[in-house]
Amino acid sequence: MSCCAAVNEDTGRFFSRFAAWHRLRFRVFGFERTQRQLLGGIRRAGIGGATLLEIGCGPGYLHRALLRLGAERATGVDLSAGMLDMARAGAEAEGLAARTDYLQGDFTQMADQVADADVVILDKVICCYPDWLALVQRSLGKARRCYALTIPRDRALTRVAIKAMRWGLQGAGCCYQPFIHDPEQIDGQIRAGGFRLIDEALTPLWLTRTYVRAQSGR
C-alpha cells in the first residue's frame, strides 16, 4: 500500500469516528460561523437551479441547505464512509435523496469520474490534504461558475492549534495530519484559473472566500 493510500484510509477512519459527534454538534449549535459565511458567499454568487459539488462533504449539511435554498442537484465526495452514511440518511430524511449523489474516495484520484458543477465547495478540506495544488487544480477544473472554500489562516494562533493537533494524532498512532497551506498561493492559483474574488470573511482561525468565473459578469 502506498503512503498516500495509507494516509487516506486513516483520514477516512478518523472522520468516520467523529460522525456521531458532528451530528450532535449540529443538532445543538447548527452551522458554525465559518459555514454561515460560506453559505452567504455562495448565495451571493447565485444558486438558483445550480448544480453543486461538495468535496469533503462530511454529513452533507451545507449542500442540503443550498438545495433547500434553490440549488437543483448536489454531489458529495468524501473519504469517510461514516460521514457519507450520515449524508445519505440526512438526504433521505429531508426528501432530497433524488437530488443527491455520493461518492467515496480521494477526489484527486477520481476527478475524472466526477461531473462538472456550477458551484464547487471545499469547506475545511484543503487543510486535510498534503498536495493542495493538485486538489485545487482538479477541483477548479470542475467549477463552471463558482468556487468557494474555507481554509486555515496562516497566523501564529492557527499554527499553534495545528501543531497541537498533530502531536495528539501522532501520539494516537494516526497517519492523518492537518496542514496550513499558504492562502495567497491558493488565491493566486484560483485567480490564474479564471476566477475573481467576490466575498471574503474571517474568524480568528479560518478564512472563507467565494470566487466566480471572471467572465460571469457577477
According to CATH, the homologous superfamily is Vaccinia Virus protein VP39
The CATH class name reads Alpha Beta
Number of strands: 7
The count of domains is 1
Residue ranges: pLDDT <50 for 5 or more in a row? Answer: 1-7
Sheet with the most strands: spatial strand order: 3-2-1-4-5-7-6
Distance between the ends: 46 Å
Helix content: 40-55%
> What name is given to the CATH topology?
Rossmann fold
Structure at a glance:
This protein is of the alpha/beta class. The chain is built from 9 helices and 7 strands.
List keywords for this structure.
single chain; 218 residues; alpha/beta; Rossmann fold; 7-stranded mixed β-sheet; 9 helices; 7 strands; globular; disordered N terminus
Question: What's the structural blueprint in terms of helices and strands?
Answer:
Blueprint: H1 3-17, H2 19-29, H3 33-45, E1 51-55, H4 61-68, E2 73-78, H5 81-93, E3 100-104, H6 107-110, E4 117-123, H7 132-140, E5 143-152, H8 156-171, H9 183-192, E6 195-202, E7 206-213
Parallel strand pairs: 1-2, 1-4, 2-3, 4-5
Antiparallel strand pairs: 5-7, 6-7
